[in-house]
């Protein structure tokens, strides 16, 4: 790894709390939070629209092009539900947040997602789609994947305590 600071990918089904966790992580470290779904919206990194779910279908190449220069400098927390299109050489640690079905259902209802979108995401969580997607790319490359529960405030505290030392540790290893 030639980056001065590592990049951490935080992934998981919409509603597991990625953005909440990444904001807290960035606030407590010198890492920069990249909220990819917001970048997709603001920079229009999509060519297609899903009428049924009423949302954009991000374009992998456009997102890659937007992210790669940022990740090359290191020190980023990438907040996104999808990861298989990322270049594994740009990621140093993967965090997969997980929640119980009932937690996710409640959170997505509160977001006023249409029923079909709630159902699709709850199913994705049950089938651990995001975890499997991350494994497909990063397991092969020997990048650590930390799966962590994120139903409660306590869970978030525990996850922060575990992740926060990672950048420091990685920098120390590099200096040797
Ligand atoms: P994502 O970015 O994965 O879609 P968000 O960070 O937007 O998820 O969180 C979805 C909802 O869940 C928000 O209302 C947030 O306040 C709540 N939430 C997130 N993490 C936790 C947690 N660890 N404990 C309790 N509520 C949480
Ligand atoms: Mn989010
Ligand atoms: Mn590669």
Characteristics of this structure?
binds manganese (II) ion; Rossmann fold; five-stranded parallel sheet; two-stranded antiparallel ribbon; globular; alpha/beta; 8 helices; binds adenosine-5'-diphosphate; 176 residues
Description:
- By secondary structure, this protein is an alpha/beta fold.
- The chain is built from 8 helices and 7 strands.
- It has helices at 18-27, 36-42, 60-72, 101-110, 115-126, 129-138, 153-163, 165-175; strands at 8-11, 32-35, 46-50, 55-58, 76-79, 93-98, 145-149.
- Strand 3 (46-50) and strand 4 form a beta hairpin.
- One manganese (II) ion binds next to helix 1.
- Residues 87-89 line the site of one manganese (II) ion.
Number of domains: 1
Mean pLDDT: 94
The gross shape turns out to be globular
Helix segment tally = 8
Q: How many beta-strand runs? A: 7
Query: Strand count, sense and closure of the main sheet?
Result: 5 strands, parallel
CATH class: Alpha Beta
Summarize the structure.
With 176 residues, the protein is of the alpha/beta class.
Write the layout of secondary structure elements.
Layout: E1 8-11, H1 18-27, E2 32-35, H2 36-42, E3 46-50, E4 55-58, H3 60-72, E5 76-79, E6 93-98, H4 101-110, H5 115-126, H6 129-138, E7 145-149, H7 153-163, H8 165-175
Parallel strand pairs: 1-5, 1-6, 2-5, 6-7
Antiparallel strand pairs: 3-4
Helix pairs in contact: 4-5
The structure holds adenosine-5'-diphosphate and manganese (II) ion (2 copies).
């Amino acid at each position: 790894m030639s980056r001065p600071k590592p990049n951490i990918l935080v992934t998981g089904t919409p509603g597991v709390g990625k953005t909440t966790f990444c904001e807290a992580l960035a606030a407590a470290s010198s890492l920069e939070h990249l909220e990819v779904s917001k970048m997709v919206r603001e920079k229009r990194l999509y060519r297609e629209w899903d009428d049924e779910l009423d949302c954009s279908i991000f374009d992998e190449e456009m997102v890659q092009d937007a992210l790669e220069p940022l990740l090359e400098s290191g020190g980023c927390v990438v907040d996104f539900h999808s990861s298989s299109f990322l270049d594994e050489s740009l990621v140093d640690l993967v965090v997969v947040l997980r929640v119980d079905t009932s937690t996710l259902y409640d959170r997505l209802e509160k977001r006023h997602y249409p029923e079909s979108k709630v159902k699709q995401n709850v199913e994705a969580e049950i089938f651990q789609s995001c975890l499997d997607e991350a494994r497909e790319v990063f397991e092969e490359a020997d990048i650590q994947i930390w799966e962590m529960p994120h139903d409660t405030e306590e869970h978030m505290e525990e996850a922060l305590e575990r992740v926060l030392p990672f950048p420091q540790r990685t920098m120390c290893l590099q200096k040797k």
